[in-house]
């Protein structure tokens, strides 16, 4: 994973995507709590870091950790299990940068296809995924809680 420079109004900052560490978990947990009605626990992220089939990544901007992703890999398939960007930093291209990096890394790790679930009503996330070649292959009725809602299952060949 790598980074790149990006101009910001009135200045310049660097966006970096890297593997997460235990030191990142507090920031990840804060973003998770702010992003989801049924959030993962800090412990879930910590346990994910310890598993060799899981890749947890963070995206940083000039002010610190702005988002994260969790990808599970099994053979030639992988699943984007979780992705969020700090609500105060959305719309700046950080989710797109994180997606591009995790797709490249999954391909480099030997995955041939990636799956994910997304809330049917989450237009911003659906747009992010569809712009990167994901397409709907199924629906999981009432998959999400708080509020209850269907999940769309998306797929992309790598």
Characterization of this structure:
With 158 residues, this protein is α+β, with helices and mostly antiparallel strands. It has one domain (3-157): Aminopeptidase (3-Layer(aba) Sandwich). Helix content is 27%, strand content 44%. It has four helices and eight strands. An eight-stranded mixed sheet has the order 1-2-3-4-5-6-8-7. The longest helix is centred in the middle third of the chain and has 15 residues, at 94-108. It is globular and about 40 Å long.
Second rung of CATH, namely the architecture: 3-Layer(aba) Sandwich
CATH class: Alpha Beta
The CATH homology group name: Gcn5-related N-acetyltransferase (GNAT)
**Domains counted in the coordinates: how many?**
1
Topology, number of strands: 8
Give the topology string: H per helix, E per strand.
EEHHEEEHEHEE
Cα distance spanning the termini = 16 Å
* Annotation field: number of helices: 4
Q: Bin the strand percentage.
A: 35-45%
Mean pLDDT reading:
92
* Largest beta-sheet characterization: 8 strands, mixed
Helix proportion range: 25-40%
Low-pLDDT residue spans: 2-10
CATH fold call: Aminopeptidase
Radius of gyration: 15 Å
> What spatial order of strands do you see in the largest sheet?
1-2-3-4-5-6-8-7
**What general outline do the C-alpha atoms trace?**
globular
Based on helices, strands and strand pairing, what is the structural class? alpha+beta
